[in-house]
Amino acid sequence: MRQFFSDVKLGRHCSVHVRCVGLFILNMGKQKQAKKYAKMKRMISLKDQRIKEQDRAKSQPKKKEDPSAIKEQEVPKYPSCLFFQYNTQLGPPYYILVDTNFINFSIKAKLDIVQSMMDCLYAKCVPCITDCVMGEIEKLGQKFRVALRIAKDPRFERLPCTHKGIYADDCLVQRVTQHKCYIVATVDRDLKRRIRKIPGVPIMYISNHRYNIERMPDDYGAPRL
Q1: Which of 35, 176, 184, 186 is most buried by a 10 A CB count?
Q2: 201 and 127 share a domain?
């Protein structure tokens, strides 16, 4: 700096020195700006004395309950098919909803799905697959191409789904709750637990390299385990 001012007095300053000093002065003049935070509105406390009594919300008086009055309770409505001890909508030919795990475990156990279902129930069986389950199998990729080929078997009945963006298990539970004419074929424990809460819906599963049925009435000739 001393050299620069001496050069200025002597008239020997150059453009390089002027630029350096200009940058130095600009850097010295900058100030750190504080970060701007969102302004929060202050809320008045409910106990504040500035609130008038007329502006305060009045507490509604509680109604006294009459102990002798009859209490109204909503009873869930059950379909008429569950009037007897078993579901009257079930009967040959059986319509069986199949999920992804059931197809994969059937391939692992080397079981033909349609023939094994008929061996289990001793009647004609129609395996059904929903759009959600089909989409779930397609997302699994090339590793499960055998399961996809089985799901596209012409003996399988394709059930269209009207909803959008729903889990396959939720789709099956929703369909079985509305229509009691289906049997659910699954190996998933969580789905089994959810289906057991719905009355009148049998469950088909795999054990000992064969299909077994759960919660099937004896009148239909279901095999006893």
Answers
A1: 184
A2: yes
